[in-house]
Amino acid sequence: NPVLAGLGLVKKYGSTVALDGVDVSVGARDSLAIMGPSGSGKSTLLHSLAGIVRPDSGTVLLRGEAIDKLSEERLSALRRKRFGFVFQFGQLLPELPAEENVALPLMLEGVPRRQAVERARRWFAPLGLDGLEHRRPGQLSGGQAQRVAIARALAVEPDVVFADEPTGALDQTTSTEVVRLLTSVTREQGAALVMVTHDADVAAHCDRVLQVRDGRISNYTQFTVA
Ligand code: ADP
Ligand code: ADP
What we know:
This protein is of the alpha/beta class.
């Protein structure tokens, strides 16, 4: 059973058809890369699956529950608790040490500060961040900052991690290192991963690659034997 499924997703902006009937699903420990030219609908697909954009028709099921029909309030609570997000850059709060950036989503869920920081610290070793707990984002390299962002996305132990161009601001060597950790640590945590990327080498680290063109799936590759 898939953790997350989008069924018959259609989204229009005026006369622009951003999504034109897309079906997609991901299982636990499954990783999916979304690729395609600029304007093809990648962001709209990611945002629809993540409950940020509401499709005009079709539905998004999280463990079988239709989330696109939830109230805005319930949907944002669900996003905080069940989803983790990694963006291209600039998502860490510059005044806070790395461990507190990672702890923040837990504190927003009501976990007391000390406990949240303790839980946050557990992600540092698996992500190769040992010793960097007290650094502020400005004192981290680009790759280190993205690994802290991955830790933050995983802190609440989400069902799904969404990554929007997570290596877009990194050089090739650092990109490879970051996507390897993103896919492996997300899998170990038991979450599904949905990632938008322009980089075919980065996408190749995912189990499956979906090509989007003009709001439709134009190609679909499965790398691993199920
Ligand atoms: P991609 O991520 O592949 O670049 P998008 O999903 O951002 O593509 O956009 C798909 C199409 O929908 C594009 O033509 C884009 O201009 C349009 N679009 C996306 N979001 C909006 C919006 N909020 N308002 C109007 N048009 C939008
Ligand atoms: P990406 O580089 O990830 O494809 P974009 O730069 O296309 O992102 O879009 C960034 C944001 O702007 C998205 O939330 C998208 O929905 C919105 N957007 C994209 N195209 C348009 C548009 N033509 N009008 C309004 N908003 C848009």
